[in-house]
Amino acid sequence: MKQSALRATIRLAVLQDLPHLKQCIERAYAQDKARIKNLPDVSAGLEEAFHSNTILVAEVDGRRAGCAILSLKGSEAHLINLAVDPGFMGRGLGRQLVEAAERKAIEHGALDMHLATHPEMPRNVSMYSKLGWNEASRNAHKILMLKKLR
Questions:
Q1: First and final CA of the chain: distance in angstroms?
Q2: Facing residues of 55 across strands?
Q3: What is the pTM of this model?
Q4: Residue of 19, 21, 66, 117 with fewest CB within 10 Å of its CB?
Q5: Going along the chain, which residue ranges are E strands?
Q6: In this predicted model, what pLDDT tens digit does every residue of 109-130 receive, in sequence order?
Q7: DSSP code for 141
Q8: Distances in Å between the alpha carbon of 47 and those of 68, 104, 137?
């Protein structure tokens, strides 16, 4: 049975969010980490990311349900990480976070946005493709995707 879509409140992260976001990221990637040997530590450096990037938080009923970490530099934006807590997966929060990150990048003046995902995570490629992203390159360890924002 398909669960109904959720509408999240998306806001900028504050320092107090970091322990919750670290847990969310670790939970979101737990199954992938168990089966993909070369998957990097996806929650490493979260505090540094907070100080040098834009972190968006998705909240549902006051619970932190997901996040997007975005680097904004000049006319380019990089979606560093996207995580949705497994209890909220499959209900549209990933899409909402990606769209919020794209809006933030456009506000910053970015023309393009790119990201990297792992070849052994085909659901990521599928989701991003449905949201208008294109595969730019691929190797054994990484798929680079790009979206023109304007």
A1: 38
A2: 69
A3: 0.92
A4: 19
A5: 9-12, 54-60, 63-73, 76-84, 112-117, 134-138, 143-148
A6: 999 999 999 998 988 999 999 9
A7: S
A8: 14, 20, 30
Q: Which residues does residue 81 pair with via DSSP β-bridges, in sequence order?
A: 69
Cα-Cα-Cα-Cα dihedral sign, residues 74, 76, 80, 81: positive
Say what the pLDDT of residue 1 is: 47
Domains of the chain, start order: 9-148 (3.40.630.30)
How many residues does the structure list for the chain? Answer: 150
- Higher per-residue confidence, 2 vs 42: 42
Do the beta carbons of residue 44 and residue 131 sit within 8 Å? Answer: no
Q: Which two tokens stand for residue 50?
A: 């907070």
- Up-side HSE of residue 100: CA atoms within 13 Å toward CB? 24
At 98 the three-state DSSP class reads helix
Examine the pLDDT at 15 and tell me if it is beyond 50: yes
- The two structure tokens encoding residue 140: 């054994």
